[in-house]
Specification:
By secondary structure, the protein is an alpha/beta fold. It folds into two domains: about 140 residues, serine acetyltransferase, domain 1 (Orthogonal Bundle), CATH 1.10.3130.10; about 110 residues, Hexapeptide repeat proteins (UDP N-Acetylglucosamine Acyltransferase, domain 1, 3 Solenoid), CATH 2.160.10.10. It has nine helices and 14 strands. The strands form three sheets. Strands 2-5-8-11-13-14 form a six-stranded mixed sheet. The termini are far apart. This is Serine acetyltransferase.
């Protein structure tokens, strides 16, 4: 597959560092596992820049008979060339996985295999298309991402940097939701509405929020910065900054006691002894 016709400006320094780590891991694995040598050359080692490898990876992941790679690659290249923040955000997302996920045993593993990462990067392309008024193609990509990765994010949703979607399966995010920076979202999380109302009807997630597995957050409500949503909780009201909520319906069960964002520490515990209530 060719590289970008309109190369995106390389990501910020974090992108260079992450890309060097990915390449080093690819060299190591190729030497250890001969079966993967050709695959790693095509996906990583044949590319000089993170932007080019990301472009090729995304296209390969989603191309199909009715939307072949050569056709699908054009909007991806256009988006990356027009908005360098797409590539920079992807690098920040990958760095977030390495910092937060103990299953990420190397930089190469999430880059090649983590579908939460792939779904989020495709969403960034779809969101660019949505902003350009190309809603039909954006909806097509949303549908294909849902089919391929089991992650359904409306293309209108703005998403910040350093976002970690762990596993990804069953994540649903509605049209008027907003996702801040440094947010962590686990499997089967829903950011949805409460009925058939139109207009602004979905949650707003501030920076540093942790949404544990199976959390359901419904309506035009705000999850305050550095809040934590317990696994399986149903949230129907605003959550104050730094609060930990749990239950059905969710209630405040604790407060963070330092400046560490739950999304960064990935601390899922709800033990009241760990908090000042």
């Amino acid at each position: 597959m060719d590289t970008l016709d309109h190369p995106a400006r390389e990501a910020l320094p974090i992108g260079h560092a992450v890309w060097q780590a990915v390449r080093a891991d690819a060299v190591r694995v190729a030497a250890q596992e001969e079966t993967l040598t050709a695959f790693l050359h095509e996906t990583v080692l044949a590319h000089d820049r993170f932007a080019d490898a990301l472009w090729a990876l995304l296209v390969r992941k989603l191309a199909c008979r009715i939307m072949p790679a050569e056709r699908l690659g054009r909007p991806v290249a256009d988006a990356m060339a027009d908005d360098p923040a797409i590539v920079a955000s992807a690098a920040a997302d990958l760095a977030a996985i390495l910092a937060r996920d103990p299953a990420a045993d190397s930089a190469l593993t999430p880059f090649l295999y983590f579908k939460g990462f792939h779904a989020l990067q495709w969403h960034r392309i779809a969101h660019w298309l949505w902003g350009k008024g190309r809603h039909d193609l954006a909806h097509f990509l949303q549908s294909r991402v849902s089919e391929a990765f089991a992650v359904d994010i409306h293309p209108a949703v703005p998403v910040g940097r350093g976002v970690f979607i762990d596993h990804g399966t069953g994540v649903v995010i509605g049209e008027t939701a907003v996702i801040g920076n440094d947010v962590s979202i686990l499997q089967n999380v829903t950011l949805g509405g409460t009925g058939k109302e139109h207009g602004d009807r979905h949650p707003k997630v501030k920076d540093g929020v942790l949404l544990a597995a199976g959390a359901k957050v419904l309506g035009n409500i705000t999850l305050g910065a550095r809040s934590k949503i317990g696994a399986g909780s149903v949230v129907l009201k605003d959550v104050p900054p730094c609060a930990t909520v749990a239950g059905v319906p969710a209630k405040v069960v604790g407060w963070c006691r330092d400046d560490a964002a739950p999304a960064l520490t990935m601390d899922m515990s709800l033990q009241q002894a760990d908090y000042s209530i």
